[in-house]
Amino acid sequence: MSTVDPVEQLLANGLKNLWYPICPTGFIADKPVSLRRLGYKLALWRDTDGTLHALEDHCPHRGAPLSRGVNLGDRLQCPYHGVEVRCDGVTTRVPGSPGCKLEGSQATRYFHVTEAAGAVWLYNSAGNIEEAPPLVLPEQLSSAEFSHFLCYAEWRGDYRYVLDNVMDPMHGTYLHKQSHSMSEGESHAKFVTRDTDTGFIFEKDGQRGVNFDWTEWADTGVHWMRLEIPYPKTGGPGGNFHIVGSYTPISRELSAVFHWRCRPLTGWQRDTWRFLYKNRLEARHWAVLEQDREMLEFMEPDANQRENLYQHDLGLVRLRRHMKNLAKAQLELIEARQL
Amino acid sequence: MQQPYLEPHQARTRVPNSFEDLLGDSIERAFAVGIHDLPGLVGYLNQAGPTCPGGEPWTEDAYKTLMARLGE
């Protein structure tokens, strides 16, 4: 009989009190959708004016999936017994037993959701809260200087393998050697770490703008990662190609993988890059990501329990340690009932 | 068990047509030889093709108008 390590469990489900990307905005229409994310089964739907809502997909009466029910605008009606649950988690009506204790009680988990950069974002609060903090994204996704496209994919495996992969720039030189953008530069490197206001940068000592040479990890109320890769000459004017990534657990076996491909362009250059992206670059970028996906999906779930790490791995070691410390701190707050 | 979502084409709304493919080829070739300015690109398209929709020579305005639509 194995005991469950609470730190491990918290990390596997995703740390609390952070914004997470859930799915592309186009996944949610007026018909309620059920998605597993962050250790929950969620019901997501749109109100008559398009506003997004998210409840735990669990009727407070007997746990039937609310997502299979009727969209009544700001509330869902459970298909099982007609119980109505509003977007703030309050049961507004129990038609089979009017006036019962369940009526009027906030018996359902609800979540704050918003839309940005083509994705639905959910605030993973530890409990029901009145208001969520603002969603703060990197300039690549929030500034008009940048144009971006979202690429969303679901990869088999724990999301932390995806974090490790992005925190490991050196794999670009090997795994992505035959890609359209990562054939240049030295095949060995020494890495250094640099602190930032929101996290840290892990970078090759002395090589910049040649290959996948650095990764930034940041916490702005969202955990996101950022890197830049030079485009080949055929990519035209506009300098490097920026990638912002954010990763959300679906289950122990599946991860929601979000990459925004961004470039600082305006005017005809922006439009040209967007045309080329839709016409051909998207397929090339996809081929690179597929190399990552296949590598990670072929790794055993416990691969990270037997490793021999070396200098290139300092970044992922630091990130793992940091995440673990965040989890420990959150657990202490949860146990003290302060979260 | 639902299959994981793996869709290579998330940006486009339809399969490109052959004019768009030829245009993409030509733009990439121009970029590859270091043409990064709009007059240079328009000159290259007039010399190498494809023909501007409507049959007139490419102009900066015609290019910008078309790209604004294709790059939405």
UniProtKB/TrEMBL annotation, chain A:
Organism domain of life: Bacteria
A Pfam family per the record: VanA_C
The protein's name in its UniProt record: Putative iron-sulfur protein
Oxidoreductase listed as a keyword: yes
Xref: SUPFAM superfamilies: Bet v1-like (SSF55961), ISP domain (SSF50022)
PANTHER family linked: 3-KETOSTEROID-9-ALPHA-MONOOXYGENASE, OXYGENASE COMPONENT (PTHR21266:SF60), IRON-SULFUR DOMAIN CONTAINING PROTEIN (PTHR21266)
Keywords: 2Fe-2S, Iron, Iron-sulfur, Metal-binding, Oxidoreductase
InterPro entries: Cholesterol_7-desaturase, Rieske_2Fe-2S, Rieske_2Fe-2S_sf, VanA_C_cat
Domain annotation Rieske: ranges: 19-122
Species of provenance: Metapseudomonas resinovorans NBRC 106553
GO molecular function, one term: oxidoreductase activity
From TrEMBL, chain B:
Organism: Metapseudomonas resinovorans NBRC 106553
Name of this protein: Recombinase-like domain-containing protein
Pfam families in the cross-refs: HTH_62
Domain Recombinase-like: 1-72
